[in-house]
Amino acid sequence: xxxxxxxxxxxxxxxxxxxxxxxxxxxxxxxxxxxxxxxxxxxxxxxxxxxxxxxxxxxxxxxxxxxxxxxxxxxxxxxxxxxxxxxxxxxxxxxxxxxxxxxxxxxxxxxxxxxxxxxxxxxxxxxxxxxxxxxxxxxxxxxxxxxxxxxxxxxxxxxxxxxxxxxxxxxxxxxxxxxxxxxxxxxxxxxxxxxxxxxxxxxxxxxxxxxxxxxxxxxxxxxxxxxxxxxxxxxxxxxxxxxxxxxxxxxxxxxxxxxxxxxxxxxxxxxxxxxxxxxxxxxxxxxxxxxxxxxxxxxxxxxxxxxxxxxxxxxxxxxxxxxxxxxxxxxxxxxxxxxxxxxxxxxxxxxxxxxxxxxxxxxxxxxxxx
Amino acid sequence: xxxxxxxxxxxxxxxxxxxxxxxxxxxxxxxxxxxxxxxxxxxxxxxxxxxxxxxxxxxxxxxxxxxxxxxxxxxxxxxxxxxxxxxxxxxxxxxxxxxxxxxxxxxxxxxxxxxxxxxxxxxxxxxxxxxxxxxxxxxxxxxxxxxxxxxxxxxxxxxxxxxxxxxxxxxxxxxxxxxxxxxxxxxxxxxxxxxxxxxxxxxxxxxxxxxxxxxxxxxxxxxxxxxxxxxxxxxxxxxxxxxxxxxxxxxxxxxxxxxxxxxxxxxxxxxxxxxxxxxxxxxxxxxxxxxxxxxxxxxxxxxxxxxxxxxxxxxxxxxxxxxx
Amino acid sequence: xxxxxxxxxxxxxxxxxxxxxxxxxxxxxxxxxxxxxxxxxxxxxxxxxxxxxxxxxxxxxxxxxxxxxxxxxxxxxxxxxxxxxxxxxxxxxxxxxxxxxxxxxxxxxxxxxxxxxxxxxxxxxxxxxxxxxxxxxxxxxxxxxxxxxxxxxxxxxxxxxxxxxxxxxxxxxxxxxxxxxxxxxxxxxxxxxxxxxxxxxxxxxxxxxxxxxxxxxxxxxxxxxxxxxxxxxxxxxxxxxxxxxxxxxxxxxxxxxxxxxxxxxxxxxxxxxxxxxxxxxxxxxxxxxxxxxxxxxxxxxxxxxxxxxxxxxxxxxxxxxxxxxxxxxxxxxxxxxxxxxxxxxxxxxxxxxxxxxxxxxxxxxxxxxxxxxxxxxxxxxxxxxxxxxxxxxxxxxxxxxxxxxxxxxxxxxxxxxxxxxxxxxxxxxxxxxxxxxxxxxxxxxxxxxxxxxxxxxxxxxxxxxxxxxxxxxxxxxxxxxxxxxxxxxxxxxxxxxxxxxxxxxxx
Lengths: 370, 324, 507
Known about the structure:
The complex is a heterotrimer of chains A (370), B (324) and C (507).
Chain A: H1 7-12, H2 19-29, H3 32-48, E1 56-58, E2 61-63, H4 65-88, H5 96-113, H6 120-147, H7 152-171, E3 175-177, H8 181-188, E4 190-191, E5 194-195, H9 196-214, H10 217-226, H11 228-233, H12 238-263, E6 266-268, H13 276-286, H14 298-317, H15 322-339, H16 342-353, H17 365-368
Antiparallel strand pairs in A: 1-2, 3-6, 4-5
Chain B: H1 2-23, E1 37-42, H2 48-64, E2 67-72, H3 77-90, E3 94-97, H4 106-114, E4 119-122, E5 136-139, H5 142-156, E6 163-169, H6 175-188, E7 194-201, H7 206-219, E8 225-228, H8 231-243, E9 253-258, H9 261-268, E10 274-277, H10 283-294, E11 302-304, E12 309-310, H11 312-318
Helix pairs in contact in B: 1-3, 2-10, 5-6, 7-8, 9-11
Chain C: E1 8-17, E2 20-30, E3 35-39, H1 46-53, E4 61-66, E5 69-70, H2 76-81, E6 84-87, H3 99-104, E7 110-111, E8 114-115, H4 117-130, H5 146-159, E9 164-168, H6 176-191, E10 195-199, H7 203-209, E11 212-217, E12 220-226, H8 232-240, H9 245-260, E13 268-275, E14 279-286, E15 291-295, H10 302-309, E16 317-322, E17 325-327, H11 332-337, E18 340-343, H12 347-350, H13 358-370, H14 378-392, H15 408-421, E19 426-430, H16 438-453, E20 457-461, H17 465-471, E21 474-479, E22 482-488, H18 494-503
Parallel strand pairs in C: 3-10, 3-11, 6-9, 9-10, 15-20, 15-21, 18-19, 19-20
Antiparallel strand pairs in C: 1-2, 1-4, 4-5, 7-8, 11-12, 13-14, 13-16, 16-17, 21-22
Helix pairs in contact in C: 9-16, 13-14, 13-15, 14-15
Subcellular location (chain C): Cell membrane
InterPro entries (chain C): AAA+_ATPase, ABC_carbohydrate_import_ATPase, ABC_transporter-like_ATP-bd, ABC_transporter-like_CS, P-loop_NTPase
Pfam families (chain C): ABC_tran
């Protein structure tokens, strides 16, 4: 009756005394379809160009399509990382795209305005200034939401709308092109043969994973997201938590902004980070975190972000006509979202666990999800 | 948002004022006959090119001593329609605008026509069947731009046997993207040795150009030429080519359209091989058209911007004076 | 009657949720014209069994026959069409619509594409008549008492020609007369041959109305009995599975404790504490190790006082002293820092974090107190969870089970564990035993008296006066947002308190 790959039945088994790891297995099972999508996309690429997965050393650093996906995916990973925590608290941050534009513009305007754009000190100062600026912007979002109780979608919409304007003011409507070797490293350079942006994103991801697990932050974020009122009565400082996640989200977006501008050595107030908030939200949702808040999965977000980036790269490399690019992307996303929908998963679970329908069956998600 | 609100309020105010004037029997309009007032609705401020375009138009009108009412549609057609309606209510003498999109203009243009206000399109066209809705369309001919790029390619690769071309297209569906692709293809159609092996949109942005080019470089080993629909995508492609250990301008030739300052710098540095100009400097020509119309003269239905092309030497020469 | 053919026959039903085996091979049957009561503690599997029958949950194993045919339903709507109607504890009706509309919602008779209002009223009237319910079908549902609304819900269930009617805790919000009215209707339906499943925590009612009982415990079947053939004490024994002596033991123990209480300086004392629209200024004091019962009707100010004492609501007037020092508790967090914990009556909204594990829920308040950065080490969390799970008898005894999958009584115990984990000096319990069964109730009561003996001050709020009287050293009676009495609990009777609640004759 019970097959091993059916997480529901496996969990229910009376033998499952160590349910902790099995609960994790269930969470991970939501990631099956995004992971399958990721693999399918990679396979498609390999079929089209067999050496897609090959990585060679070029000028002392790694070079190949996979590296491109990781490098170009880094900004989405970062923004989605911040977004995951925001969404876990039942919130949403629409302003990340604007923050991406602002941070790049701000850093480059400082570097461009300095006497020596190639000085490491100037670049570090500019990066620090950008991050502090983002901290202020995130704190603004946090203030509106945690203290004034404005709905997250409205509160962050304010910065989303105003933010690009701020970026345009900084760049005076131009694309700021600044050539600065140290700055170039963030998005386009290499450390230990690997693109620096991958290392930065991986480090931040690891930091968040450790921070949320080794402190109580993860549990408290979920608690606030699942039941804010009960959390408050249990003495959880929801305001502090909410304030923190929005501030952190802005800092993540700012680092992504530095990467994007560094990658093209230019700050483009109009197109930098355009729609990245949607990509990030999509990555979070593909990763199995519910927009209703509560339990979240950082690994899921990571997979989701790379599904999105690989999809973009696939479109370019298998030569999908520009006119149907968006339709193609939409189809892949719909397929993944449908396949991981609770109802569909319940259907698959039934198919696997029942040879013949001896008894009536009803949507399983009522028992598991709601 | 404030701007729109402001415009709407101004519009509402002016309606009531016009109402009063009409009651007084004065049909000549608020603008007066001697004082020339032009309403201009810009697409937005989406690129350096656009900003230069705005500055040039504002500068040219200021120099000519003509009052220019300027509004920024922020990339939204509805804002632009609102702005045009407000200009009609203000009874300006001439309306000029760069349409955000090609279609959906008939109603508002008819309103302008009924109000007896001539309309001039700048930079971008509309797809109205009735060409009496506007007096003139001043702007670049994107097909010619594509053809010029193609012509240079024919010459540059005269001795080659096979030429593998990759194309970085502009925003899918935008007129410049469609026409630049068309013109280029027309120009190279006669020669079989040219093959466009990959074509993808880079959304007119550097980041887009870079990502697309990275993917092209992985899936197509023998690229001879990059044709980018604007300088920004070309600049992105340069970064991708350099990262792949190749020399842009030498290993892979690059031809782009626009001739903004950053592009010209790359051309002067030899990283881009040829740039077809798409000039944002429409101001002077627009002033001419407006004054002619105001004086009762007639203008050509289609006026092409005065544009040129640049080679490396010309770029080095032009660069110090390049404003945008 | 056993020779009759059962209308419902469920055999070997098993259902599992992540971490919980909710039902394990349970058999259950119902006969036409019979009232069958499903008995068991919270978490025994009663709700799950009902949901299996109504198609809300798919079953993992077993079979369900309805009138001899396999029942193939994939949801409540389906099961209703098959002739199984359910009336839930909370009436799911629309108070802003008419009685007739509520009865026929979703099945409105139609004519010319519109609703046939006349026929609708007539049909509703006929059903109401069948229930001997004399109300105007056109009147707004909201204008009627909760009891009438409950009967309308039954009328709605009957309109589909139900062969099986499930009544889940229908009497929990009804008074004595209303219960009598409901039972009259049930008896009438029984005579019409409807099989009725009656779930209630009130033993008296079960013995009055039920013909047959099925007892579940921990998801397993204990047995099926004729009501007249089983003594109450046997039934309770079968339900809680342990010796009934613990219940009586508790009674004497607490009564003894009362005598030992001495009047020292109060742990917490409030003077003129009030909040506009919530409670009128009053004095309140509680000593260390004292249990103070708060009695009063819903809305009398008992919960409101508790919320002010625990920092959730801010008082407008008055002063609060803890161990002689003036304190201002502006948030729940501040109160918790002073070791004052409030367990809300609204378990779902203000209590549990349902998607977190039992362990997370238990350590939540303690962790919140330590701040987000200093996480309680995992080993300490496991110890805490394990010790409270065994001390309070939380079932399933799995710290990693999601709290949403626990029964109400066990959720309540998890909450208690959460507050106990911060070692409170003052514990305010608001209706800690509501909606939970005899066994759990007794356990919680015993726990409270033990805690008080160890020196914890407890404010105990309950609508059940017997419970308040049994546990408390002192009783504060609230009425209309005022404190009307403050009695030492020596030989205070339910009748006395009832009189105070009703009229406040003493003051």
